[in-house]
Amino acid sequence: MKASRIAAAGAAAGVTVLALSVPAFAHVTVQPEGDAAKGGYAVVDFKVPNERDDASTTKLEVTFPTDHPLASVMPEPMPGWKIEVTKSKLDKPLEMHGEKISEAITKVTWTADGKGIEPGYFEKFPVSIGQLPEDTDQLVFKALQTYSNKEVVRWIEVPQAGQEEPDNPAPVLELSAASEDGHHASSGEDASDAKSAEKTSADSAADTASSDSTDTTARVLAIVGIAVGAAGVAYGVLAGRRRTNA
């Protein structure tokens, strides 16, 4: 009986660790490189993981919000990807730096002219955006992810506060408070903002490396836990056989 209890405990431990080691369901997300303050400019990355074992991601379409249109949207050139920017007329013109803007970019499409994002990999798609709105705390970007087998995953469900995350959540960019001095970058400062964002991107890369290290540690611990569980099962089986033979 004691051997059976040990075996059962070992098996339970192995199953528990294995369950904890399974990665969370990944989806298309948007994150700023540094700060995304209301009224300012930012560089954001659309992070796209490949969730299929037998197909590559060959196309990404990101729709930009029309309820809070952005006058400036500049995607960064990416080797292996063709970029198409779509502009649309605004129902309500924007006023920016004393000028009225009647149209804005409403969609950016990346199409692979090579292998795309292969199974087991992810890629980031950087875009410089601004001027960020001051009358909202977040921006929602709906996205379509197309695979080489023609499958299309629609990341368009808007997460609701206090509710469980939907199966296909849309990327949401959280905006921080405006700077204390209330200074907003002007059109002449766009280039300076872009250089600052590039510097911040390097810091972000360091943070990613640290995160990768943490993930590696977690995987090692998970493997150790599974091994302990398997050892417990083996011990229980051997002990049971010995008692039977006795």
Question: In words, what does this structure look like?
Answer:
The protein has 246 residues and is α+β, with helices and mostly antiparallel strands. The chain has 2 helices and 11 strands; from the N terminus they run H-E-E-E-E-E-E-E-E-E-E-E-H. The strands form 3 sheets. The chain has a 5-stranded antiparallel sheet with strand order 5-6-3-9-10, with no helix packed on it. A 4-stranded antiparallel sheet has the order 1-2-7-4. A hairpin with a 2-residue loop joins strand 5 and strand 6. Helix 1 runs antiparallel to helix 2. The longest helix has 56 residues. The radius of gyration is 24 Å and the shape is globular. The two termini are 15 Å apart. About 17% of the residues have low confidence.
